[in-house]
Design goal:
The protein is of the alpha/beta class and 305 residues long. The protein has one domain: Homocysteine-binding-like domain (TIM Barrel, Alpha-Beta Barrel). 36% of the residues lie in helices and 10% in strands. The chain has helices at 5-13, 48-61, 79-92, 127-142, 153-164, 185-193, 207-214, 240-247, 268-288, and strands spanning 38-42, 67-69, 95-99, 147-150, 173-176, 198-199, 221-224, 250-253. An 8-stranded parallel sheet has the order 6-5-4-3-2-1-8-7. The chain starts with a helix and ends in a 17-residue tail after the last helix.
């Protein structure tokens, strides 16, 4: 028996699932363009040295990284460092996503430093921070960046409008960060409607919850397989096959459980630990879901100007 029937009927009337899906029954019919269900994303790669070590190390281990995500913020990197990220993406055929720099946690916000600071997350405070965020993005685009991690819904909608007007590159990829805190079908649909090309839901959703999100959107979902201590310290490696089954197309986000937090530069030793975790996820997928091989890589989201 399922309770709250009237509420469920109202959700169905607006085209949303009537709750969380039964993970044993629901299998996503959506795929990446080549028919694959999953790719690998490595988050918190906050210096180009670490990115290069990861890409070389992955090749030596026989695994493929499809996307690298920098999370410290473009405004905290030199022009030369950003160009190096871009070149690595081009040379290795890997998507490089750079984060928009201004955010509440690096602003003067008192709220962001309180126990309830998660309510503001990384969002922008005030109109001038919105201006600065767009300036940060224009600089990144000038240096060749074509993929962004966005932490503010208003900024997302603004960038989408500018992209549609031809004032930003049509190929610019906009990824909604988990720090925005979205975790239900209505919220992720809103993000897709405002131009998100991929969506990172909150990190602690169950497999049935993720299946419900997939019913609401068509863009890829970026799902954390593991996390550092500052955002949960969980390792869900054995859930990864179900993530791909019920929520494809998905980017399996893995590796940063080797790190103490989200704003750090990985050390060489930590990069080795990240590579071990990536390899474990790839092996888990091959062993438990062999009928769903890793999807072909997307075209690199960066070009050298």
């Amino acid at each position: 028996m399922r309770f709250f029937g009237e509420a469920r009927e109202l959700l169905t009337a607006v085209g949303l699932p009537d709750g969380d899906s039964d993970a044993g029954l629901d299998e996503s019919a959506l795929r990446f363009p080549d028919g694959g269900r999953w790719r690998i994303e490595v988050p918190t790669v906050n210096c180009a040295d670490a990115a290069e070590m990861l890409l070389i190390g992955a090749a030596l281990r026989g695994v493929r990284i499809d996307r690298i995500t920098e999370t410290k913020g473009m405004c905290r990197h030199t022009d030369a460092e950003i160009r190096r990220y871009v070149a690595l993406g081009r040379d290795h055929g890997v998507e490089i996503l750079m984060s928009v720099g201004p955010r509440a946690t690096t602003d003067i916000s008192a709220t962001a430093r309180t126990p309830e600071g998660s309510r503001i997350g990384y969002r922008l405070r005030g109109g001038e921070k919105l201006v600065q965020a767009i300036a940060d993005i224009l600089r990144g685009i000038e240096l060749g960046v074509r993929g962004l991690v966005v932490y503010d819904e208003g900024l997302l909608a603004t960038l989408n409008a500018l992209r549609r007007q031809g004032k930003l590159p049509a190929e610019l990829h906009l990824k909604v960060s988990a720090h925005c805190g979205h975790g239900n079908p209505a919220s992720v649909r809103l993000m897709e409607q405002h131009g998100a090309n991929s969506i990172n839901p909150v990190r602690d959703l169950t497999v049935p919850m993720l299946a419900g999100l997939r019913q609401a959107v068509t863009v890829p979902l970026d799902i954390h397989v593991d996390n550092p201590a500052t955002s949960g310290n969980f390792i869900r490696t054995l859930d990864a096959p179900d993530f791909a089954r019920v929520a494809s197309p998905v980017y399996l986000k893995t590796g940063n459980s080797a790190l103490p937090g989200h704003g750090v530069n990985p050390t060489p030793a930590q990069v080795e630990d990240m590579l071990d975790q990536i390899k474990i996820v790839a092996e888990t997928m091959a062993r438990h879901y062999p009928s769903a091989p890793q999807a072909a890589p997307a075209a690199a989201m960066a070009k050298v100007i």
